[in-house]
Design brief:
Strand content: 5-15%
Strand order of the largest sheet: 3-5-6-7-8-9
Number of domains: 1
Number of helices: 9
Number of strands: 9
Largest sheet: 6 strands, parallel
Structural class: alpha/beta
Order of helices and strands: EHEEHEEHEHEHEHHEHH
CATH class: Alpha Beta
CATH superfamily: Metal-dependent hydrolases
Length: about 240
Amino acid sequence: MLNWLFDTKKKTEVNLGHIGIDIHSHILPGIDDGVETIDQAVAMVRKMQDLGYSHVVTTPHVMWDCYRNTPDIILEKLEEVRRACLVAGVHVQIDAAAEYFIDEHFNELLSKNQELLTLPGNRLLVELPYSTPLLNTSENLFSIISRGYQPVLAHPERYTYFYSDPSIYKKLIDQGCELQVNILSLTGYYGENIAKMAEWLLKNNLITFIGTDAHKIQHLEMIQKANKNNWLTKYSFGNKKLITI
């Protein structure tokens, strides 16, 4: 669970070795809105190693209107990145899951028991629309759980339509969902209100995992310098336990 995330008195740069594993990133080239080339992918993994990560489970988008990724596409790209990192001398364990947008295609995959790429512990990383809430979020979570998966909701702090009733976050957890906050949210990258909500979720012990959600090297560079911000304090998270699952 979360220790001192950063200590500005002792460090000039962030070291995330105590987290160990990043469970949300977009480092497979050319298949979503993340990196575009294999060289960019290697640079991202190298930077993650510099940040202290020993294990990366990257999560390309599966969003049928935009990114029609399948397990075959994702795993083929994963092998390309693994080989390139090996040649480059970058020694980080790299695996792949996916970030599934809850849409009709996702529900079809679920209902037909199609192969889904999961985080450690059979966890399924899912995301919601940013602008308009789903009317059947509870039903979707029930469907995920009933098929043996543990749902992990990506960046709940970015769904601003929850802000009018923050108790929804506790309700999601009570329904069996785990929540994953973005480190970038805490840096203020997405705006002040999202940063405040990320802090609120952490302070109220509603967050299980913390992830980079890095799409490009600049995101990791921002995280590396994040100890210069005043929001850094001690929270708890569960990333570390995933390394042993």
